[in-house]
Write a structure and sequence with these properties.
222 residues; alpha+beta; SH3 type barrels; five-stranded antiparallel β-sheet; two-stranded antiparallel sheet; rod-shaped
C-alpha cells in the first residue's frame, strides 16, 4: 500500500531532477534519519550524525528528498533541507579547533626551536670564546718562542764571536810561545857566546899576564 501511494505521489509531482554527484554535509541536527524511500512512510535504514560528509546522487524537488551515499558506499534517502553546501558549524568548529591546536603545536615547536637555537648559539659563543682564549695563549707562547729564538740567535752570535776571539787569542798565544822559544834560543846562544868570550878572554889574559910581568921586571932592572 505504501509503495502504491509513493508511486502516485511520484507521478503527481514534478519529475525528479538528476544532478551530478556533489558533496554535502548533514546539517546541525543531532541525528538525521536515512530512509529507504522518499517519504516518511519508508523505513529508517540508519541515522547520520551532524557534520557527516555524504555524496548527493540525485535530488527530487517534488518530494524534497535526495538520494545520498555515505563514505561506506551505503545509499538512502534524506530530506534535502537537512543537507548543507558547506561543513556545519560544529564541523567547522572541529576543523578550527584542529587548526588552532596545530597552530599552538607549531608555536610550541617554534618556541622549542628558538630555545634550541639559543642553546646552540650559547654553545657556539662559548666555543668561540674558548677558541679566542686558546688563540691568545698560543699567540703569547709564540711571542715567547720568538723572544727565546731571538735570544738563542744572539747567544749563538756571541758564541761565534767568542770562538773567533778565543781562536785569535790561541793564535796569538802560539805566536808568543814561538817567539818566546826563539828568544830563549837567542838568549842561550848569547850566554854561550858570552861564556865563550869570557873563556877566550881568560885564556888571552892568561897568556898576556906573564908577558907583562916580565916586561915590568926588566924595566925595574934598569
Amino acid at each position: 500500500m505504501r509503495f502504491a501511494i509513493a508511486a502516485l505521489l511520484a507521478l503527481s509531482t514534478v519529475v525528479p531532477s538528476i544532478a551530478q554527484a556533489e558533496t554535502r554535509w548533514i546539517t546541525d541536527k543531532l541525528e538525521v534519519p536515512i530512509r529507504s524511500g522518499e517519504s516518511n512512510e519508508y523505513r529508517i535504514l540508519r541515522f547520520l550524525d551532524s557534520g557527516t560528509e555524504i555524496t548527493v546522487q540525485s535530488r527530487n524537488s517534488g518530494t524534497g528528498y535526495s538520494l545520498i551515499r555515505d563514505s561506506q558506499g551505503r545509499e538512502g534517502y534524506v530530506l534535502s533541507r537537512y543537507l548543507e553546501s558547506e561543513p556545519t558549524a560544529s564541523k567547522r568548529l572541529v576543523e578550527v579547533q584542529s587548526q588552532l591546536d596545530q597552530v599552538l603545536n607549531d608555536a610550541k615547536n617554534g618556541s622549542k626551536r628558538i630555545a634550541d637555537l639559543r642553546e646552540s648559539l650559547e654553545s657556539v659563543t662559548a666555543e668561540r670564546n674558548s677558541a679566542r682564549q686558546e688563540l691568545a695563549s698560543v699567540s703569547a707562547e709564540l711571542t715567547e718562542l720568538k723572544r727565546v729564538a731571538s735570544d738563542v740567535i744572539a747567544i749563538n752570535s756571541a758564541n761565534t764571536d767568542l770562538r773567533g776571539r778565543v781562536q785569535q787569542l790561541e793564535d796569538e798565544s802560539a805566536l808568543l810561545q814561538s817567539e818566546n822559544l826563539t828568544l830563549r834560543d837567542d838568549k842561550d846562544k848569547t850566554f854561550m857566546l858570552l861564556g865563550a868570550g869570557l873563556v877566550f878572554a881568560g885564556i888571552l889574559l892568561g897568556l898576556l899576564l906573564p908577558s907583562l910581568r916580565r916586561k915590568r921586571q926588566s924595566s925595574n932592572w934598569f
